[in-house]
UniProtKB/TrEMBL annotation:
Organism listed in the record: Gossypium raimondii (Peruvian cotton)
Segments passing through the bilayer: none
Biological process according to GO: meristem growth; meristem maintenance
InterPro entries cross-referenced by the UniProt entry: PCN
PANTHER family linked: WD REPEAT-CONTAINING PROTEIN PCN
The protein's name: Cirhin
Length: 189
């Protein structure tokens, strides 16, 4: 039995996989850094994708690099779109997505609060900074983004609380070039 999935919004598929808890769900990432959850039995977009496809946070939409892979967090949950998490990664960054948490749009109030800090006194400024720090830590963000220093080749979960990251230091990348990356024009005679 075959099923054809056409190009999604004109983008090519870059990675895909089945969560370990349910092989009836297929998650696909595309070259436009979108991801889609398909219900394989129903042969259509899953409920989560239909609800959140156009409401993904801006920090994820501006994900650095093109998604090259994904890794599923091992979990004991039986319903992956309710409580499983996923790591989506490019060579430059990774993003943690938890399907059990709400998809919050970016909080613009932090910018407003940051602007208000400039107008407050130093004691009040310290209180504001402490309050902002506490509210950020207590708020459980979804779509947390981590930017890498060196290009990443692979990311995979080893267990629920540990991941394996294979990267390549930039000096090795530069040394692998056949010739100098820049051609300098020599002026004069």
């Amino acid at each position: 039995q075959h099923w054809f999935i056409s190009r999604l919004n004109g983008a090519s598929v870059t990675a895909g996989g089945f969560p370990p808890q349910d092989n009836n769900i297929l998650i696909i990432t595309t070259s436009s850094n979108q991801f889609y959850i398909f219900d394989v039995e129903a042969r259509q977009l899953g409920e989560w994708s239909m609800q959140h496809l156009f409401t993904l946070p801006k920090r994820y939409q501006e994900f650095p690099g093109e998604v090259i892979g994904l890794s599923f967090c091992p979990s004991s949950s039986s319903h992956p779109t309710k409580s499983s998490s996923l790591l989506v990664y490019s060579t430059r960054a990774m993003c943690s997505i938890d399907f059990g948490k709400p998809v919050d749009e970016d909080d613009e109030s932090e910018l407003v609060n940051g602007a208000l800090l400039k107008f407050q006194g130093s004691l009040t400024n310290m209180k504001w900074k402490h309050w902002l720090r506490e509210s950020r830590q207590s708020r459980k963000n979804n779509f947390d983004l981590v930017v890498f220093r060196d290009p990443v080749l692979f990311i995979g979960h080893l267990s629920k609380h540990s991941i394996l990251i294979i990267d390549k230091p930039w000096m090795e990348v530069v040394k692998s070039f056949d010739s100098a990356p820049l051609q300098r024009h020599i002026f004069g005679t």
